[in-house]
Amino acid sequence: MKQSVKLIAGNWKMNGLSASLQEAKALQDSLNDSPVAVRVALCPPATLVAQMAWTLKGGTVAVGGQDCHTEASGAFTGSIAASMLADAGARLVIVGHSERRAGFGETDADVSAKAEAALAAGLEPIICVGETLEQRQAGDAVAVVSAQVMGSLPTSLSGQAFAVAYEPVWAIGTGLTPTLDQIEEVHAAVRAAMVERLGEGGRTAPILYGGSVKPSNAAEILAVAEVGGALVGGASLKAEDFLGIIRAA
């Protein structure tokens, strides 16, 4: 089965000021000097999207947003429409990250609507799913994640560019990671749910792994079946660390 090219995406979360763009520039310069056979993206805070897109203009590193509103415009103070991200130079957007689901009460239906909004604006959505530690310990990880895939992926994704990111909530920023067997089990379940939801359109989109990915463990994780890339948090803030992960792919 032909799979998409691996995608390594960095999520800066609520980190980064204008001075941080030097890290993005260093990343781009290194990849220009020594190209890789994977796609690379950086998702900075909204305040840096336009600046980063300008800094990286003409290069291979794509810029993405970290969230978008379900509506194209309107009276939603403090929110950002997908079209605004695209206008600022973004090409991708993360939706449904566990920090949005837990901290802002986003449901699968909300995430699905955001993915639709992203597609309408010409952005490639990265749709996040993942179980909590309690759900993992109860043996419900596969069921929980499969249900999130079914509820969070709009059928309009079929035939479009998108990715699903599996991030076990308990592994994000903790230094903990699932075993390789656990990662393989969940990624296989995610793929099955994608195909059930989207038919043939769910067979080739990459499934990214996220959760304490670092240069020291990236190669073995990225070699697991159905791991089509990585969604990287803290390790993407520094070019040297992020490059270690990119080159491990």
Report on this structure:
The chain is α/β, with parallel strands linked by helices and 249 residues long. The chain has one domain: Aldolase class I (TIM Barrel, Alpha-Beta Barrel). 42% of the residues lie in helices and 15% in strands. The protein is built from ten helices and eight strands. It has an eight-stranded parallel beta barrel, surrounded by eight helices. Helix 1 runs parallel beside helix 10 and helix 9 packs parallel to helix 10.
Q: Structural class of the helices, strands and pairings? A: alpha/beta
**Overall spatial form:** globular
Instruction: State mean pLDDT (0 to 100 scale).
Output: 96
Give the CATH topology. TIM Barrel
Relative helix content: 40-55%
Furnish the topology, listing elements before pairings.
Layout: E1 7-11, H1 21-33, E2 39-43, H2 46-55, E3 61-65, H3 82-88, E4 92-95, H4 98-104, H5 108-120, E5 124-129, H6 133-137, H7 141-152, E6 163-166, H8 180-198, E7 207-210, H9 215-222, E8 229-232, H10 239-248
Parallel strand pairs: 1-2, 1-8, 2-3, 3-4, 4-5, 5-6, 6-7, 7-8
Helix pairs in contact: 1-10, 5-7, 7-8, 9-10
Summarize the structure.
This protein is an alpha/beta fold. The chain has helices at 21-33, 46-55, 82-88, 98-104, 108-120, 133-137, 141-152, 180-198, 215-222, 239-248, and strands spanning 7-11, 39-43, 61-65, 92-95, 124-129, 163-166, 207-210, 229-232. The protein has an eight-stranded parallel barrel, surrounded by eight helices.
